[in-house]
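mind reviewing this stuff:

——
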Amino acid sequence: MKIITYNTLVMNEGGINLQAGMNFGIRGSYSIVLMSTLKNAPYVDEMLDDGVIKYEGHDQYRIEKAYKKRVDQPIKNKSGTLTQNGKFHLAAQQFKEGKRTPAKIKVYRKLRPGIWADMDFYDLVDGFTEHDGQRNVFKFLLRPNFDNFKPEESDNIDIVHNRYIPGDVMQEVFERDEGKCVICGAKDNLHFDHKIPFSKGGSSKDPKNIQILCARHNLSKGNKLKY
């Protein structure tokens, strides 16, 4: 999992200056969502234990901030067109009904202002509403997509389980390692690395087992257990 700046995120996506969290079909063949599990996040996004993301839909636009969290999240605009909630929900229902393949979703996870984790691609497999105690909100299930995953090449990088690192662990490790490679001090092309790979019993939930490495040292680590 790469750690990137917002500017790199924009460059990755062809120069699109992403402001909204939900962007259905914005890249043609795939959609983009921006997520956060930080305490001050405006929406309740979750990383479930099996690596699935439970992503919350977005509130009604152009409404006073004091009322946003009191009204149901909309599926349609006043003009009758689908909101982002509606577009994601329709794609999820069509997948469940066998009418389409799952929509591909590129996920970026906010670690702190200006710093993001590139979570790679997920499949949109479900969409539904939940009552949060005040109003109905949309929830979308995004399942890790492993189309490009090669187990024989990724024991060290541990691509599958990198996605399972809880947000608070990412935050703690990023601050502890001062946002740079613990070996050479590089501040670009960074990755979260398991000291002991998940496949060998290493934990994704223990900050002591996670470190930041640059791409060069991450790849050169191989199967060696370095501390």
User: Anything to note?
Assistant: The first strand starts at residue 2 and ends at 5. The mean pLDDT is 88.
